Amino acid sequence: MSIRFTAKARRGMVAMTVAAGLALGVAGCGGGGDDDSKSSPSASTSKNSGSKPSAQKGESETPLAELKGTEGLLLQITSAQRDSGGFLTVNGTVKNDGAKSAVIPPQTSGDETEVIAHGPSLGGATIVDSKGKKRYYTLRDTEGRPLTTTGLGNLEAGQTLPVFMQFPAPPTSTTEVSLQVPTFSSGTIKISG
C-alpha cells in the first residue's frame, strides 16, 4: 500500500507542477507591462455615435491616408508606427460611408490558403518600399494566422471598425511606404518611430 500511495503522490506532484507551469505560461502571454497602447484593437464592431473618438497614442486625428473601397467602404489610416522589435504596425478604421449595409470583401484576406483558413481578415495587405524596391506582406504567426484584424463582416451605414495590420519594418531610412489592400485604392503613408 505504501508503494501505491507514493506513486499517487508522485503523479499528483507532476500534475501540480504541469498546472503551475501552464498557469505561468498563460500569464506570461497575457501582455501587461507599460506598452498597453500598442495592443491590437478588437475585431468587434461599434456604431458611430457621432462623437469623435480620441486619438490613441501615436495616432493623429487627421488620417495619414484614405483608401477608397467598394460599396462605399473607406479605410482611414491613422498611424504607422515602427517599433524597436523590427515591426511596423499600421492602425486605422474601416468606415461604411455608403447609404446601406456593406460587406467587407473576402479578397481583403488575400489568396494564401493558410491565411484564408483563419477567416476574413486584412491578410492580403502589403506595403511597398519603392525606395528600397521591396514589398512586405502582413506577418503571420506560427499557425498561419495573419497579424491583422480578423473576423471582418458586415458594416451598417455609418458604422466604423478599428483595424490594424503588422508588417516587417522597412529600413529606418525608409520614411514613406505605399499601403495596398485588395479591393481598396492604394495610398502613401508616413512611418513614425
UniProtKB/TrEMBL annotation:
Record's signal peptide: 1-20
Compositional bias ranges of the Low complexity kind: 39-55
Record region (Disordered): 30-62
Domain of life: Bacteria
Keywords tagged on the record: Signal
UniProt keyword Signal, yes or no: yes
Identification of the protein by name: Secreted protein
